[in-house]
Write a structure and sequence with these properties.
Elements: H1 2-11, H2 15-31, E1 44-46, E2 49-51, E3 55-57, H3 68-72, E4 78-84, E5 97-100, E6 105-108, H4 117-126, E7 132-137, H5 148-159, E8 165-169, H6 184-205, E9 211-215, H7 221-233, E10 238-241, E11 262-265, H8 269-283, E12 288-292, H9 298-306, E13 311-314, H10 316-321, H11 324-332
Helix pairs in contact: 5-6, 6-7, 7-8, 9-11
Keywords: Cell membrane, Flavoprotein, FMN, Membrane, Oxidoreductase, Pyrimidine biosynthesis
Binding site for FMN: 59-63, 83, 136, 169, 214, 242, 265, 294, 315-316
Subcellular location: Cell membrane; Membrane
Length: 334
């Protein structure tokens, strides 16, 4: 109810300003003991981890892990922070975030703006949250794509001991050539190198932190076949399906629809689901699947579960629906 009252004010502001204000308000509310939401306890065991419920926050909302405790109070079963890069970077020039309310959609070209991995780790250490925390890692924009593995290794090593799982983001459309890492020799080398380092870190810290890959919805059947085979070969623990799309299907002719960047929200639901079904068909339960993309109702979370997702994540839907979406999704899922 509170969000339905606040939304008109927030939507009167520039999207990035509204984003910052919302997080600040959440943090203040949490500080004063308000804003807590109770959701059903529906434990799910996935990747060897017991999640209190299957609904998580997707990466991108809290890039630096500065609002973990406030977001946790909303009732998420898990929270994913990032994307974080080895060095701080400002991202792409503003404006870089656009609402399309008629379609419950968002276009962003943020460009991995973040304060760097060291700051994120400090924020995680300062948080009181003891729940399931995913940390999403990427490469710096000025790191050549052929050297990307070193950036991912740096982040993996620095966040490993503070993460419940680590997500390797190679699917943002807003870092030049990043999606090249989703195919061929580049993907093989990346997964092989990160898997080997994950096992070394597991030995070093005496605990195993699952490794998860996040892919785009703009994949061909051949891409899906290849990625699935590599996930199995290198024993990657999970796959997040999907990131934002370059397609503009569902927003044609609407204001801001021609802005460059990744499209998220309701229009990506079917495209993301098609990818999810294709990966589920090929992976046959060998890799845990996390469904994300276009969830704006509880029923849609349940659909992703039916298509093979053990967990789901939300982000854009929160902006249009508010925190009640978390509870609705948990209630709708088995």
């Amino acid at each position: 109810m509170f969000y339905s009252l606040a939304r008109p004010l927030l939507f009167s502001l520039a999207p990035e300003r509204a984003h910052e204000l919302t997080l600040s308000l959440l943090k203040s509310a949490h500080k004063f003991g308000i804003g807590h939401q109770t959701v059903a306890h529906k434990p799910v065991t996935c990747m060897g981890i017991e999640f209190p419920n299957p609904v998580g926050l997707a990466a991108g909302l809290d890039k630096n892990g500065a609002y973990i405790d406030a977001l946790a109070a909303l009732g998420f079963g898990f929270i994913e922070i990032g994307t974080v890069t080895p060095r701080p970077q400002s991202g792409n020039p503003q404006p870089r975030l656009f609402r399309i309310p008629e379609a419950k959609a968002i276009i962003n070209r943020m460009g991995f703006n973040n304060d760097g991995v060291d700051r994120l780790v400090e924020n995680v250490k300062a948080a009181k949250y003891k729940g399931i925390l995913g940390i999403n890692i990427g490469k710096n924009a000025d790191t050549p794509v052929e050297n990307a593995v070193s950036d991912y290794l740096t982040c993996l090593e620095k966040v490993y001991n503070y993460a419940s799982y680590v997500t390797v983001n190679i699917s943002s459309p807003n870092t030049k050539n990043l999606r090249d890492l989703q195919s061929g020799h580049a993907l093989t080398e990346l997964l092989k190198t990160l898997k080997n380092r994950q096992l070394e870190l597991a030995e070093q810290y005496q605990h195993y932190v699952p490794l998860v890959l996040k892919v785009a919805p703009d994949l061909s059947q051949q891409d899906i076949e290849f990625i699935a085979s590599q996930l199995v070969i290198f024993k990657i623990d999970g796959l997040i399906v999907t990131n934002t799309t370059l397609s503009r299907e569902g927003v044609e002719g609407l204001a801001c629809a021609d802005e460059s960047g990744g499209l998220s929200g309701a229009p990506v639901f079917e495209k993301s689901n098609q990818c999810l079904q294709e990966f589920a068909k090929r992976l046959k339960g060998q890799v845990a699947l996390v469904g994300v993309g276009g969830i704006v109702s509880g029923n849609q979370a349940a659909v992703k579960q039916q298509y093979g997702a053990q967990l789901v994540q939300i982000y854009s839907g929160l902006i249009y629906t508010g925190p009640n979406l978390i509870k609705d999704c948990v209630d709708a899922m088995n």
